[in-house]
Automatic annotation (TrEMBL):
Residues 1-10 have a biased composition (Polar residues). It comes from Pseudomonas syringae pv. actinidiae. It comes from the Bacteria. This is DUF1534 domain-containing protein. Residues 1-47 are annotated as: Disordered. Residues 16-30 have a biased composition (Basic and acidic residues).
Amino acid sequence: MRLSFLTLQRGNAVRDALRHKSEPRPRPQDRTQSVQNGMRRRASHDR
């Protein structure tokens, strides 16, 4: 069971890496937006 789970994880990682290579890179402003969303989400948890 454990071995098959690790194998599945490795397969997903390889597929994700290939997909990311073929996808265009995100624009810097998109990355900034996601960072701001993450900071806002984290701040709401800290309250």
